[in-house]
Specification:
Elements (H helix, E strand, L loop, with lengths): L5 H7 L3 H11 L4 E3 L2 E3 L1 E8 L2 E2 L16 E2 L3 E9 L3 H14 L3 E4 L3 E15 L3 E10 L23 E4 L4 E4 L13
Antiparallel strand pairs: 1-2, 1-7, 3-6, 4-5, 6-9, 7-8, 8-9, 10-11
């Protein structure tokens, strides 16, 4: 991690490798949170957890059914500099206050994010340094399936009646094609 405070930058100014790294770092594109460009984002963490069973599974069971993906969490550490640094920070705080989902663009677009936490770690006369933690909201699509009308009649074929001492049953027998040993 690169220390982008004034003392951190000045202490590394002697080393030419650090200067070339910083030059390449500052020439990168912006990170955008909704419509707010963040110029100095120097830390990004992405955590994509899954629940995996620790108990033995039945032999032959579908392993995919036992693994569930949880909501991803993301965090950035950024610094806002310039004359309007406080105004930009207030815009970020208003995103949290609105309690809406936000989009973050870094190397790709991260959508359906909720701001979980904003921590201001440093403030000076020329900049603000802060951390933002996000949680990705997983959504599902619900579809209604129309119920059959009462006028609909069931379609069955090859009906077989079974009478037992407790109940009667009428329907298709899936086992009618199975022959036991000794049967013809």
């Amino acid at each position: 991690m690169v220390d982008l405070s004034i003392t951190g930058l000045m202490s590394k100014a002697i080393n030419s490798n650090s200067l070339s790294f910083l030059n390449s770092y500052f020439s990168r594109k912006y990170v955008i949170l909704e419509d707010i460009p963040l110029e100095l984002v120097y830390s990004f963490n992405e955590d994509l957890p899954s629940d995996v069973p620790t108990l033995p599974l039945d032999n032959g069971s579908n392993i995919n059914d036992n693994i569930s993906n949880n909501s991803g969490t993301f965090s950035i550490k950024a610094q806002i500099v310039g004359d309007n640094y406080m105004e930009t920070y207030e815009k970020i705080l208003s995103l949290r206050d609105k309690r809406r989902e936000v989009k973050l663009y870094m190397d790709k677009l991260y959508s359906n994010l909720a701001i979980k936490n904003i921590t201001r770690t440093n403030t000076s006369l020329t900049n603000i340094e802060f951390n933002i933690n996000f949680v990705q909201i997983n959504t599902v699509n619900l579809q209604l399936i129309p119920a059959p009308s009462s006028a609909a009649k069931p379609i069955t074929s090859n009906k077989t009646e079974l009478k037992t001492s407790k109940q009667e049953w009428e329907g298709d027998l899936a086992s009618s094609g199975i022959k036991l040993s000794g049967e013809k």
